[in-house]
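quick one, 128 residues, struct below
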Amino acid sequence: MSETPAQSPESTQSGSQGADFDAMTRDIAEVPAVEVIVTVAVNLMSAAAVKLGLTDEGDKYKDLDEARKLVHALAGLLDASTTEISSFHAAPLRDGLKSLQLAFREASLVPDEPGQGPGEKYTGRIYG
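---
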């Protein structure tokens, strides 16, 4: 019985990962930039809502430090891409951002100074 060297899990995984990466690259190449930006924004909004405790699970996943980062990143993305995406896409995203900023303010035990809340660097002070 001849022995053949066993392939390491890493070598078999890298072969299939290479093929998967090529397929993903082809797929992403077909997606318009506006769609990528909007998808990322929606994912940031969803994650922020979870971290703010706005889901059915409520406080189970609430983490205001994480929510602050996500809301800030969303505001930065929207600020940077405003001229790149139409108002058709931007308006509802800005509304969602404002709702998250207000929810953050309500959830905070220690309120931020006016204009210092998450994302307000990009949006300006948020008024309820």
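Residues 9-29 form the longest helix (21 residues).
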